[in-house]
Each structure stands twice: as C-alpha cells, then as structure tokens.
C-alpha cells in the first residue's frame, strides 16, 4: 500500500512539473512599472554586451598583476665540429655546456601602477553599464506613460460613446412619440458614430503603445492580453533646480564616468612615467667544460642595464598628460550640459504641474457642469442638439487636455529622475 502511494505521488509530480515549468516561462500578462524595468534590464542585449566589458576589465586586472617571466638559456658548443679530422676524443678545444638564467627586475613601481590602471578601467566599465541602464530605464518609463495615457484616452472615448448612445436612445423614443424630427435623431446618431470611430483610433494607439513597451522589455513576441498596472505619477518635488543639480553631479553615471576617466588618465600617466624608468636584468650562468679527459665548472653573475639614451617613453608620457587635460575639459562641458538638462526638466515639471492643477480645479469642473446642465435642458427640450454637442465637445476637449497634461506631468517627473540619476542610484 505504501509503495502504491509513493508511485502515485511520483506520478503526480511528473504530471505537475511540466505545468510549473510552463507557468514559470510564461511572462506575466499585466506588469507594474518596476516589473517592466526589471524585465527590460534582464533581457536588454545592449546591457548584456556592456556587462561583458566588465568581465574583460577583470581579466585585464589579472594580466596587470603578472610579473615578467625569467629567461632560461641552455647552450652547448665544441671546436671544429665540422672538421675532417674531428674526433670526440681529440677535440681542438674544450667542449662547453652552458646554463644561463636572467631575472628581469621592474623599477619605478610598474606592476603596482598597472594594477591601479586596470582597477580604474574596471570602474569605467561598471559606470558605462550604469549609464546604459539609466537610458534604458528612461525609455521604459516613457513607454509605460504612453500606455497609461492611451488607456485614459480610450476610457474617455468609451465614456463619450456611452453618453451619446443614451441621447440617441432618448431621441428614438421622442421620435416615436412625435416629439422630435427625424433629422435631429440622425444628427445624434452621426455624433455617436464619430465617437465610435474615435474608439477605433484610440484602440490602435493603445495597441501600438503596448507593443512598443513589450519590445523595450525584450519580449520576442507581443501578446494581445498584455496590460500595465498602476497610474500616472503626480507627486510634488521638495527641492529646486540647485538641489537637483547637486544630486545629478553626485549620482549620474555619465558625469561620474567623466570624472573616472580623469582618474584613469592620471593612473595612466603614473604608469607611463614608471615605464620610462629602466629595468634591470640580473643573470646567473653555470658553465661546464671538458677536454682531453680534464673537466671543469665555472659560475658567472651578470647585470644587464639598458642605457636610456633615446627612448625614455616621452611620447606616451606626453599622450597621457594631454588625455588628463582632455578629460578635464569633457567633465566641465558635461557639467554645463547637465545643468541645462536640470533647468529644462524642472521648468517642464513646473509648467505641467500648474497646468494639471488649473485644468482639474477650474476648466474640467466647469466643462462638466456645462455639459450636465445642457444635457438636462436638452432632455427637457429647452436646448438644441447643437448646443448639447458643443457642450459635450468642450467637455471632451477639457478631458483630453487634462489627460495629456497629466501624462506630460508624469513624464516630467520621470525625466527629473533620469537627469538627476535617481533611477540608478537606488534613492
């Protein structure tokens, strides 16, 4: 009985495992912004390629730490080997056998400077990965906002159609009772048809926005059931442009890369100066000689020192010095560019924040009130269909303006996160 239960248990596991594997491999249909970013980070080929440069830099660190190899020379010689009367027993001179070893000795701290330069190169590679991540995150955030904006536009189009279809139903009843002309009914039907067309166009925008987001997330095939969760951002910032610029200069990978490039150039200069120092080569040799039944051994010590008459690595030292000046100029130019980005981003944030507030508190409420009053008057026969459609169109335009301003306000917040480096700082 116990054996039967174990067999049943294993059979159940065998049947469930493929289903579990299928569920784990199937991407989620609905994602939040954080999930979309995580999936994009995991599947983005550019980021994966850039991460390989970190591995390359780590391999270069191994190479930089290596010491020069000693050199072993083994030689043998005899006199008149090619002579016609040569005999190993009666050579013209002693047979000689040499073992010579040279040990290079690096001066100027070359190995330490190579290790430091490789370390700075690895830091540059890591910052390049973070900079690419910052750009990808900003792109995904904009695509996510596009989907939310399109969904709001679609919901508004459905709301307008439902509203007009209610009016069409009322007009059909009024036509049957003889209280409305046929042309009035047709006008309301045309208005409803226009909103049906608007729904088709807006649905296309939703589908295109979702397709673009799935592409950025690295999905090989798009799903018609794909959707996003969450809503548009609307928080207010506590600081100003000066605070954002300070944070940007502390966190942005591209600016940190410029500074790191300067550090790397200084490490390169120190290495080139060290390479200009001459290296010694210390050697030892053991020689064995034998002739006419007599043998002897000798030991020698050698020191080899190149004379720095022509090449003192002047060219590489000058190149490294110029790269330091170049990196300083690039850093100053990038700092000015970042300051301009921060100013523009904060200006956009301020404008759209005020626009959202004004439209929501003033225009939107009044447009809705005018539409509701005009609808009530139209149902009572006190307002014409043209007046009602104008009120409905004004409300629709106000809602579209509000949705667009809200989306732009959310984009401005994401842009501020991007220009200030918040997306890759973890803060």
Can you name the CATH architecture of the domain at 48-67 and 108-137 and 213-276 and 315-424? Up-down Bundle
- Kindly provide the name of the CATH class of the domain at 48-67 and 108-137 and 213-276 and 315-424: Mainly Alpha
Please, how many helices?
9
Strand runs, count: 6
Strand order of the largest sheet: 2-3-5-6
Helix content, binned percent:
55-70%
Instruction: Round the Cα radius of gyration to an integer and report it.
Output: 40 Å
Query: What's the mean pLDDT score?
Result: 86
- Briefly note the CATH topology name of the domain at 48-67 and 108-137 and 213-276 and 315-424: Outer membrane efflux proteins (OEP)
Helix and strand string, N-terminal first? HEHHEEHHEHHEEHH
Which regions are unreliable across 5 or more consecutive residues at pLDDT < 50?
Answer: 1-24
Shape: elongated
Corresponding CATH superfamily of the domain at 48-67 and 108-137 and 213-276 and 315-424: Outer membrane efflux proteins (OEP)
Strand proportion, as a percent range, falls in 5-15%
CA(first)-CA(last) distance: 59 Å
Main beta sheet, described? Answer: 4 strands, antiparallel
Structural class: alpha+beta
Structure description:
The protein is of the alpha+beta class and 427 residues long. Among the domains are: 48-67 and 108-137 and 213-276 and 315-424, Outer membrane efflux proteins (OEP) (Up-down Bundle), CATH 1.20.1600; 70-105 and 278-311. Helix content is 69%, strand content 11%. It has 9 helices and 6 strands. The protein has helices at 2-25, 33-43, 45-64, 110-176, 182-216, 241-251, 253-275, 314-379, 385-420; strands at residues 30-31, 71-77, 95-105, 227-228, 280-291, 294-304. A 4-stranded antiparallel sheet has the order 2-3-5-6, with no helix packed on it. Helix 4 packs antiparallel against helix 9 (385-420) and helix 7 packs antiparallel against helix 8 (314-379). The longest helix is centred in the middle third of the chain and has 67 residues, at 110-176. The chain is elongated and about 145 Å long.
